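Can't paste images in this forum, so I'm doing it all in text. The chain is below; anyone willing to post the predicted structure tokens underneath?
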Amino acid sequence: MTPGQRLRQIANVLNLTTPLGLVIAAASDSKVSHGPRGLLIAGDYDWKLPYAGAFTVGNVIIYRAPHGVAGRNEVLLGHEEKHSTQYAYCLGLPFLAAYGLAAGWSMLRAGNPASRNFFERQAGLSAGGYIDTDNRRPGGRPTQQSEADA
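Text version of the structure:
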């Protein structure tokens, strides 16, 4: 683990987001294992919300995919790892409010929660399986992939 990854890991424990992610994983009966770069991988998530193939809370990446399969898609893992870093630099729980505002802005501007969402763009829209409907930006061409396919 690099010093930056270790710092992120410590920051997300201290800002309480990794413990929150572990509580969500336990409450949803998701199986947790150690992943690369200080991340924790939780598989078998089956709650209805959030509707995503994977989502991140602190250093915990929670997948709908079965345990053992979860975390194998390196592109999606990299996207979710960037969200883990965003939790750290937003000082933890304020990231949830900031992300909600960014998703709302994107809904107003693009009709979906990702295309104009700063955090999703920074993490890589296509890496997260999102369709980029913002055709005004360079390279903003829609794709055929959805997050469920990632």
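Helices lie at 3-14, 17-27, 74-89, 94-110, 118-123. The first strand starts at residue 31 and ends at 34.
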